[in-house]
Amino acid sequence: MQTEEDFKNGQVLLIDKPLTWTSFQAVNKLRWSIRQAFSIKKIKVGHAGTLDPLATGLLVICTGKMTKQINIFQGQEKEYTGTFVIGGTTPSFDLETEVNETFPTDHITEELIQNAIPQFIGKIEQYPPVFSAIKKDGKRLYEFARAGEEVEIKPRQVEITEFEITEINGLELKFRVVCSKGTYIRSLANDFGKALNSGGHLSELRRTRIGDFKVEDALTPEDFIASLPSKD
Question: Which one of 52, 106, 191, 212 is the catalytic residue?
Answer without folding.
Answer: 52
